[in-house]
What we know:
By secondary structure, this protein is an all-alpha fold. The chain is built from three helices and no strands. It has helices at 3-21, 24-43, 50-93. Helix 1 (3-21) runs antiparallel to helix 2 (24-43) and helix 1 (3-21) runs parallel beside helix 3 (50-93). The radius of gyration is 21 Å and the shape is rod-shaped.
Amino acid sequence: MSTSARRFEELGRALREALACQDWDAITELDTQVSALLGEVAADEAGADQVLRQQLDDLVRLYAQLQQDGRAERERLALELTRLSQSKQVANAYKPLD
């Protein structure tokens, strides 16, 4: 297994763990590392082997999952903020006018 393939495997494992924990800060950092590694691999196309291609395919699937989970989390937070706002409005409706 090439060094790049090994690094992709390690980054993929770290991304899966961060996704499972919903550690968005870690995901952001790991995304930066994956982008840098992709740039290195793209510059060295001749060194691309079958294992590396498989690692890249795995990362593509993982990124699709990350996007889906990120959207779901964003929607969950938006709904929570809406509920908080509505609760505040209801509470204010029952405050006595001074």
